[in-house]
Amino acid sequence: MGDLPTERVTPAFPFLNTGVDLCGPFFYRHALRKSIPVKCYVAIFVCLATKAVHVELVGDLSTKSFIAALKRFVARRGRPAVIECDNAKNFLGTSRALPELYAQFRTQQHKHAVTTQCSEEGIFFKFIPPRSPNFCGLWEAAVKSFKKHFKATIGTTILLKDDLETVLVQIESCLNSRPLTQLTSEPEDLEILTPGHFLVHRPLVSIPEPSYEALPTNRLDRYQHAQELVRRI
To answer: Does position 66 have pLDDT exceeding 70, yes or no?
Structure first.
């Protein structure tokens, strides 16, 4: 086996070096009945050092939608130094749009040295070679794990947008609770190291949900139905 990339073995803040990929399409509704399903996608951000996962709902495959998802990711996880991705058109468009935004910001705020210095610290997009999925195994594995949990809980059900976002965040919490290694070498110590330790310095624990498994599905309201789906995760 060859040497791992530098970003994988160098200690760094969570999501300082990030890989990203899009998966889908998925569907949601704006109302419970007689509403046309809306197509959407999911962006999977993976920290290359800690293997932590961040999930964002994306409206479509356009560059503007991905930039909006990227802004939400940066606002919650901090600005990454490097984003690795494939050669999809929306990623290529984002890599061209960000320098234009930074250049415009520098022009408007050129009198303020501090803001100018901050604006010069852009995000570097690192593209893998075309048609080489072996270069993005880490975030492809995260996409596979996400799809496994999503299909096991949602299946063919089409939820409302709010309920879908709740399920996505719960799946993110589940992926960030997976074991990486044991904390100590003591046989009696059952504590494990998870990506959640790098994010909140402790394991991620979800709110307990009551079970509605014994009730027929048609008797559950939208909140109970969403809670039952989340409980299965």
So the answer is: yes
